[in-house]
Amino acid sequence: MIDNFSFDLMKAVPLDLVPAFRQEAADPRFLGTDKETIVTVKGNRKPLHGAEVILFLSGPGDLRERLEKRTDSKGRVRFEYASFFEVLGVIASPYGGFWPKMERGGGYKIGVNCPPLPDDGPNGWWHRIMETLYDQRNGMSSNEVRIKVGVIDSGCGPHPSLKEVTDCGAIIEGTELANQGEGLDSGSHGTHVCGIIGGRPAAGCIGGIAPAADLYSVRVFPDNGGANQGDIADAIDLLSNDHSVHLINMSLGASQGSQIERDAIVDALERGTLCICAAANSASEVEFPAAFPETVAVSALGKLGMVPTDSFPAIPSDPDLFGDNQIYAANFTCFGRQIICGGGGLA
Length: 347
Description:
- The chain folds into two domains: about 5-115, Carboxypeptidase-like, regulatory domain (Immunoglobulin-like); about 125-345, 3-Layer(aba) Sandwich (Rossmann fold).
- About 15% of the residues lie in helices and about 30% in strands.
- The chain has five helices and 19 strands.
- The strands form four sheets. Strands 10, 11, 12, 13, 14, 16, 17, 18 and 19 form a nine-stranded mixed β-sheet that branches.
- Strand 2 (about 35-45) and strand 3 form a beta hairpin.
- The chain is globular and about 55 Å long.
- The two termini are about 30 Å apart.
- Residues about 5-10 and about 140-145 have low confidence and may be disordered.
């Protein structure tokens, strides 16, 4: 199975929680119901509906588990688990408009207050550094050569800034699902990725780094659980063969490589499609498919002063992670000789 790295650092976790995060979310039916924790997520003092909440648990010995749910209309979610577990912490990731937030420890009730995202769009610090400032005329002419970018992830939308994205359906367990709506986001990660690449923002919203690009989205993640490498390989073939995309973004990864996945990457490269892959968020070795030499591996960067001090994104304490212009390598990003470039991972 293969996990996706949720919206830049929203699923990057502190190193002491990585063992629990790196495994699949536990099935609540097998964890017991002796204890419970109620998490309430708010932003600007209002309940946040649809926020993803991850509860990290510690059991006897080295036992680590995690539970995942989304908040209801009151911003609440209720977790049940066996009495021998203790709560290590909780991460709340709002669907939009607010920074993620982590709270360590906890008991019966945990409150999480997420700070708001900036609303001074359409340009972020990464636009200014790359000198790709967005405006309504930014490369939108039909007379220009338009770059075509494929996104293999959890799907896309609906979102007002992503109405132009081509829904290429889904590939789940070897079956191609082409009916209308099959490619809609099964979570929120794919929508976020598409927005970072090519979002065309309304007033006050931050735009994508390449808003003139034509985006093609394929969903490979089911409603619950991870994707498999066979589906990812098929999605690569679909985007490269049928849609002739120039680039494919894959913000997903696994600790072990897959030959079928690599073969698809190589075949796509021979057709002129280059795969851009996230290095991963476990502060360890670069994961696959980013570790394959035929891909471009990207690590996560941040800029000092751009992240609220009370949000989940943490500024690294190691001075070696800082570079020029207050840019730093995120303390959760993976490192290795495969890394070719870095991108804004603390938006």
